[in-house]
Design brief:
This protein is an alpha+beta fold and 374 residues long. The protein has nine helices and 15 strands.
Length: 374
């Protein structure tokens, strides 16, 4: 039987295996200055956690992005600057299709400020997709794929014991293939190893209003679960189309507005009217996403899921949606459902569907009632 190809934002398993210790290029300040037309306004892409980000045309037209602090760093004081810390952290991360990766930087020594150079993302951010009135609003199916891949990016970062601390749609940039990548590691910190001494040099709490974990009030409160809370807000934004803080609503806080709806199970009041679930399969998936968002926003950090658990839950929601899609298309015997991160065979019986998958975190064999899937 001809395979049925379906789209999903989950990344390929082979993409997870990345090499460490890769070399990064050393750029001169003059190269970056020329590549950005003197850091001109026409090359300005936006502003990050520590400065402005510019489009840089280097290497025979190759587009990259360069971040420049508004003033000289603390090199003169002898202490590392925020940019130095960001470059050091990015240099230690493996290249990943889920991150906006470091390409190189200007030297640490010298009179000029350090400038990190990273991959160029040509299609803006998740924030732009959700809120730019000049762009068509993505349908729910694509929003689910975007959310799933974003969760996978954060899960991979957490596996490296790194906390991002500024998770929000504006820091999920869209690459040339329309896939989100985690960006702006200016506030990111590396956690101490389990059982080790608490790092007394952890910086004070930081983040963006509307996304910041309310329980993150001391440096030692930093954990991967603070990012999980922020991602819960991102999921709400994906579902509702509302910004995290919007004074045109009462209450202005998206979390404060959505929490009673989540607690009462009034999920249909959360849907963005521009991208409401199109059918029963999408409605069920949207409810699952809302439930995951509610778990991420649990006040007690220890009761929140890990990002790996969030990925598993979102994958399950999308897998169930794909199965419903196959049934709705009238498939009666069986076949193969494939996407870049998911592949499973299935066989339909009179009252059940049997499917097999090799994906991590998914049962190798499962039997589901067709009645529950239609």
């Amino acid at each position: 039987m001809r395979p049925l190809a379906c789209c999903m934002s989950s990344y390929r398993e082979e993409d997870e295996a990345q090499t460490r210790g890769q070399k990064h290029r050393v750029f001169t300040y003059e190269e970056i200055h020329a590549a950005t037309s003197g850091f001109s306004a026409s090359a300005l892409l936006g502003r990050g956690s520590h400065g402005s980000v510019y489009r840089a045309s280097l290497d025979q037209g190759r587009l990259l992005a360069a971040a420049k602090l508004p003033s000289l760093s603390s090199a003169s004081s002898g202490s590392p600057s925020a940019t130095d810390s960001e470059i050091d952290l990015l240099s230690s991360l493996p290249r990943s299709p889920l991150f906006v990766n470091l390409v190189g930087a200007t030297p640490a020594s010298g009179p000029s400020p350090r400038i990190p150079v990273v991959d160029f993302m040509p299609h803006g951010s998740l924030y732009d997709l959700l809120h730019d009135p000049l762009r068509p609003s993505p349908p729910f199916s694509r929003r689910l794929r975007l959310a799933l891949r974003s969760a996978a990016a954060l899960s991979q970062l957490h596996s490296l014991r790194v906390v991002h601390r500024d998770v929000k749609p504006a820091n999920l940039l869209i690459d040339a293939k329309g896939r989100p990548r985690l960006a702006d590691f200016g506030l990111a910190i590396r956690l101490p190893l389990p059982g080790g001494d608490v790092d007394r040099s952890l910086p004070p709490p930081a983040g963006t209003m509307g996304y910041l974990d309310p329980g993150y009030v001391r440096p030692v409160d930093a954990s991967t679960r603070t990012d999980v809370y922020s991602f819960g807000v991102v999921l709400l934004e994906v579902l509702t189309g509302r910004e995290a803080i919007d004074v045109e609503y009462s209450p202005p806080s998206l979390v404060d507005w959505a929490t009673p709806l989540l607690e009462d199970g009034r999920f249909e009041e959360l849907w963005d009217p521009r991208a409401a679930p199109a059918d029963r399969s999408e409605e069920e998936a949207a409810r699952a996403v809302a439930e995951v968002a509610g778990r991420c926003l649990t006040p007690a950090a220890g009761d929140r899921p890990s990002m790996a658990e969030v990925v598993t839950a979102l994958r399950a929601a999308n897998r169930r949606r794909l199965l419903r899609l196959a049934l709705r298309r009238g498939v009666r015997r069986g076949g193969l459902l494939r996407s870049r991160g998911l592949q499973f065979s299935y066989h339909l019986f009179p009252s059940a569907v049997l499917f097999r998958t090799e994906n991590t975190g998914v049962p190798a064999l499962a039997l589901r009632s067709i009645r529950s899937l239609r």
